[in-house]
Amino acid sequence: MTEHWAIDIGSRNRARRSAEQPQDRGRRGRLRVLFVSSEIFPLAKTGGLADVSASLPGALAGQGIEPLLLMPGYPCALDTAVNKRVVYELREFSHLGDARIVAGWTPDTGLPVWLFDCPALFDRKGGLYQDEQGCDWPDNALRFGTFCRAVAAMAANWLPDVVHLNDWQTGLAALYLAHAQGPKPATLFTIHNMAFQGIFPREATAELDLPPSAYEADGIEYFGKVSFLKAGLRYCDRLTTVSPTYAREILTPECGFGLEGLLQARQSDLSGILNGIDDGLWNPQTDPYLPRTFTARDLSGKHMCKAALQRELGLKPNPEAPLVAFASRFTGQKMVDCIPKLVPTLMAAGAQLAVLGEGDRATEAELAALQREWPGRIAVRIGHDEGAAHRVHAGADIVLAPARFEPCGLVQMYAMRYGALPVVRAVGGLADTVVDANAANIENGTACGFAFTEASAEAMIACVARALGMWRQSITWRRMQSRAMAREFGWARSGTSYIELYRGLTNIPAETRVEEPIEAEPAQVALGTP
Ligand code: ADP
Ligand code: GLC
After folding, report:
1. Looking at ligand 1, which atom is closest to the CA of residue 327?
2. Distance, CA of 330 to CA of 355 (rounded, Å)
3. Ligand 1 pocket: which of 410, 412, 416, 489 to mutate (most atoms <8 Å of CB)?
4. Which candidate, 506, 509, 493, places its Cα nearest to that of 237?
5. Per-residue pLDDT tens for 484-509?
6. Rounded distance, CA 376 to CA 12, Å?
7. Can you give the residue ranges of every domain in the chain?
8. How far is the CA of 208 from the centre of ligand 1 (A)?
9. 294 CA to centre of ligand 2 in angstroms
10. Does ligand 1 have an atom closer than 6 angstroms to the CB of 410?
11. Is there a shared CATH topology between the 29-80+137-276+491-506 domain and the 300-486 domain?
12. What is the CATH number of domain 300-486?
């Protein structure tokens, strides 16, 4: 493999850091973690990956961890990051023309971020992964493969203790780092969804300078093609996924998508750590997106949010109608194809249905037709709208989060925090976060939602019918709502698990840790000469 991606932009720093002993790093006080993701809220988002890629590093900053985020420089990300400046021009980086690293901050949350600004790859109209018609960008292998080369180059500059990679878009960085010269950071790969693998024909990687051995079965070969996800699983030191149940499920053919054998072989390096949520951003007591805030003790604001949501979506103003919501990507994973089958049950029960999302075009059309058929009873908003998602959770009585598989799921946690009880299929992180309202759980006071087991429309419909029946029992419902709103879904526990994992990877005992103030701005991030 040629090494021209490994631009020597930090030899001064490298010399300094490579001379450090682990105990020096401990004295320095913090572990440097380069946190790499293809989406980070609020810079760019298609789903929960973006939320976790902001809230996890945010929770760890100041706890002995010094995070630096790194992501592609999509136009939306470059527009949204604040206090930006070019910190490195990547001349002769590739044949793709100019590229640079822009350093900035996430607005409000104030996390330092590096954006890989390569206009030939990322400056275009459309989505992060798809064009305006919903088709994958034909050059995704080059887009994210080149991004991964930039990750390895910048790791050679900033010299993190740990490079934390997330999902297939970052997988090849593990391969580049494994083949790089000199001192290497420890690497951790988090699987957010095994269903997205970044599979490409081998030819699509021709410009990525991969070593020949990478194309073998022991490398990233995947049924005659290549899998970027496999690179992360194969070359990182440790692996995590986003819930304990999903960590077990991905060892089976049903959820392993052909990589269960590799995962079984690496089982001792794999752990399931339940995602947390940003409980500051998703807080019904302070949420600026809501027309009225509320608490578990005083739900009057929630009743007003319901009335406001009905007005906003063109639903009949009616506090007596249970408001059932679905706010999600329209994909088979989320059983969105089963939502239309639920309509007769909902309408017969006098309920209203609010849908927010985008994705599968046939489902979008089918849902829009149902809205026309049931004016004032069904509202469908196609598109991605962060504020609307907050208002839907605040205004809804019941939130639907069915799934054929669900690595973690954040929606059910947001729903509970906003006093809407979730209906989920008991898989992955849904099973780890929702306690079903069966007789025993209602009796012992742990029930906080409704769960079904079979992946069928019938099972989901029966579960929703059960939830609607319970909604009419206002005292029991109120108790479950209070219980749901009191659940702790923040990063306190899982954040500690990540810190332990990082320290284990770098062998730095926590007791040698000396807290230092967080550096004021990324100017102090060790940079070579720009
Ligand atoms: P996944 O990442 O599989 O889509 P999660 O439950 O982990 O599922 O996270 C989904 C995230 O995306 C949540 O923050 C949810 O509010 C958000 N979301 C999904 N669809 C929309 C939409 N149409 N508009 C705004 N936010 C959305
Ligand atoms: C993926 C998964 C979802 C998870 C999210 C964040 O998008 O589908 O279950 O909550 O990543 O980890």
Report:
1. 20
2. 10
3. 410
4. 506
5. 999 999 999 999 999 999 999 997 65
6. 66
7. 29-80+137-276+491-506, 300-486
8. 32
9. 27
10. yes
11. yes
12. 3.40.50.2000
